[in-house]
Amino acid sequence: MSKVDRTKENLEKCICMTCPSYAFACKKRSLTSNVILTMVGTDYRIHAEAMFCAYEESHCIDEEKGCICADCEVHKEYQLEKGYFCVAAGGK
Ligand code: SF4
Ligand code: SF4
Question: How far is the CA of 61 from the centre of ligand 1 (A)?
């Protein structure tokens, strides 16, 4: 599997926010920081509440309720094999 680049383009393709595992409370908590992330740049950050295949796991999502990574363009482009990148026991 290739290393996923932390680019704005990839972040915009990430569909984690529409995933059933991305709990409503997490969405509410992460919305502002995720918007800021798209504005200020993505490459130097070590954490984001999105694009978990490129960053570390979520600080908020802790339950596996389905993963839609396989439908994501980033997943296809980087030939990722796993999912659940948001949880500690997930992909990578
Ligand atoms: S593969 Fe999953 S974690 Fe990575 S960008 Fe796509 S939806 Fe987000
Ligand atoms: S990594 Fe997979 S399970 Fe986690 S939020 Fe993204 S799509 Fe959902």
Answer: 14
What's the pTM?
Answer: 0.89
Contact of 26 with 63, CB cutoff 8 Å? no
What is the signed CA dihedral for 68, 47, 56, 44, rounded to 10 degrees? 110
Residues with CB under 6 A from ligand 2: 16, 19, 21-22, 52, 61, 67-69, 83-86
Question: What mean pLDDT value characterizes the chain?
Answer: 88
Q: Which ligand is nearest to the CA of 18?
A: 2
pLDDT of residue 46: 73
Domain ranges of the chain: 8-77
Burial of 78 (0-12, 13-18, 19+ CB in 10 A): middle
